[in-house]
C-alpha cells in the first residue's frame, strides 16, 4: 500500500473509532465489527462489517453513522458497506483495549 492510501486508511480507522453501538460503550472498530477496509485507485471505499448479533436493534443507526462519517473524509469518493455474518462475530474479535474497557481482562 502506498503512502497516500495508507494515510487515507489511517484516517478511516480514526473515523471508525468514533462509531459506537449505542448499547455497548466501545467503538465498533475495537469491538471487531469491521472485517476489512478496501480502498480502490479512485478512493472508493468498501467496508466489510458485521454486528454483534444479526438481530442488532441499532443496525440502521450504526450503518448510517459509519456511512456518514467515512464519507465526510475529504479524500473519500464513495463508501460501500457490505454487511456479513460470515464469520459470525464473537468476543475473540475484540481488541485488548475493548476487553479491558468492558472489564473482561
Keyword list:
alpha+beta; 105 residues; GMP Synthetase, Chain A, domain 3; 17% strand
What's the pLDDT, averaged over the residues? Answer: 94
The structural class is alpha+beta
Helix count, DSSP H or I runs of 4 or more residues: 3
Beta-strand level of the residues, as a percent range?
A: 15-25%
Structure characterization notes:
The chain is an alpha+beta fold. The protein has one domain: 2-Layer Sandwich (GMP Synthetase, Chain A, domain 3), CATH 3.30.300.130. The chain has a three-stranded mixed beta sheet with strand order 1-2-3, covered by helices on one side. The N and C termini lie far apart (34 Å).
SSE diagram, text form:
Layout: H1 3-16, E1 34-39, E2 44-49, H2 59-71, E3 78-83, H3 96-101
Parallel strand pairs: 2-3
Antiparallel strand pairs: 1-2
Give a short overview.
InterPro entries: Fe-S_Maturation_MIP18 (IPR052339), FSCA_dom_sf (IPR034904), MIP18-like (IPR002744). This protein is an alpha+beta fold and 105 residues long. The chain contains three helices and three strands, in the order H-E-E-H-E-H.
Amino acid at each position: 500500500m502506498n503512502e497516500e492510501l495508507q494515510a487515507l486508511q489511517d484516517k478511516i480507522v480514526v473515523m471508525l473509532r468514533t462509531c459506537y453501538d449505542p448499547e455497548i460503550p466501545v467503538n465498533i472498530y475495537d469491538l471487531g465489527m469491521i472485517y476489512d477496509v478496501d480502498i480502490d485507485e479512485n478512493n472508493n471505499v468498501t467496508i466489510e462489517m458485521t454486528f454483534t448479533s444479526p438481530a442488532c436493534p441499532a443496525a440502521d443507526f450504526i450503518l448510517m453513522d459509519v456511512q456518514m462519517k467515512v464519507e465526510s473524509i475529504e479524500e473519500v469518493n464513495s463508501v460501500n458497506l457490505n454487511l456479513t455474518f460470515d464469520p459470525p462475530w464473537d468476543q475473540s474479535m475484540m481488541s485488548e483495549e475493548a476487553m479491558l474497557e468492558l472489564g473482561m481482562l
